[in-house]
Amino acid sequence: MSPAPLESFDDDPCVGSTVLTEEQIAERIRELGRELTEDYGDRRPLLVCVLRGAYAFLTDLAREVDLPVEIDFIAVSSYGASTRTSGVVRLVKDLDVDLTGRHVVLVEDIVDTGLTLRYLRRSLEARGPASLEVCTLLARESADLEGLGVRYVGFTIPGEFVIGYGLDVDERYRNMRHIAVYVDPGV
Ligand code: IMP
What pTM was estimated for this model as a whole? Predict the structure, then answer.
């Protein structure tokens, strides 16, 4: 018997309208890469990827920065197996690199309430980096980006829950090339 065909995102009723196409994402990341290249000049930034949602963004962004960057990974979890925040941020995997004197760029997938970012900023600032900036692919229109000190933002989006390009629901849709609204089948 032949195996069941893999599901296609095209036929998935939970994949709603497109928020950002693959091309729009790629173009904006090229611009962000150019900005980082100019801003960091002769400094060697350490890009800290917040797992798991920012993995796709980090991979593409790092290749658009024309400087000898270093990368490291940190993992936090604030959402359980749902689309609602639990309100509690937990460190799941810490960095390997010592941040003392480093120029750190924290690379995030989406800033929603800012809870995750506040937690990460506190934790990383305590380690004595020379500088710490935040680069997020997405930010909610409602997020206080100034208050949170977010320097680089790919796109601001409305409140709907989105999936794709690293963003998931229960670990699904991370490998979708574009970003779409999630249509909750239970609603
Ligand atoms: P915050 O702590 O409320 O800012 O939430 C940030 C984290 O929640 C992100 O890093 C994501 O992992 C997750 N998140 C928030 N909104 C979405 C969404 O629309 N889709 C997927 N994940 C999301």
Answer: 0.93
Which CATH number is 110's domain given? Answer: 3.40.50.2020
Closest to 152 measured CA to CA, from 106, 113, 119, 83: 106
* Distance from C-alpha of 108 to C-alpha of 137, rounded to nearest angstrom: 7
- Tell me if 3 is assigned to some domain: no
Classify residue 166: in a domain, yes or no. no
**Domain count of the chain?**
1
How far is residue 51 from each of residues 65, 76, 116, 144, 145, measured CA to CA in Å?
Answer: 20, 7, 12, 22, 20
- Residue 60 falls in the annotated catalytic set: no
Of 94, 98, 109, 112, which is the active-site residue?
112
**Ligand 1 binding residues, C-beta < 6 A:** 53, 78-79, 85, 108-117, 161-162, 167
Residue owning tokens 């790092």: 62
Tens of pLDDT, residue by residue over 35-83, are 999 999 989 999 999 999 999 999 999 999 999 999 999 999 875 555 6
Candidate from 76, 108, 155, 167 with most ligand 1 atoms within 8 A of CB, to mutate: 167
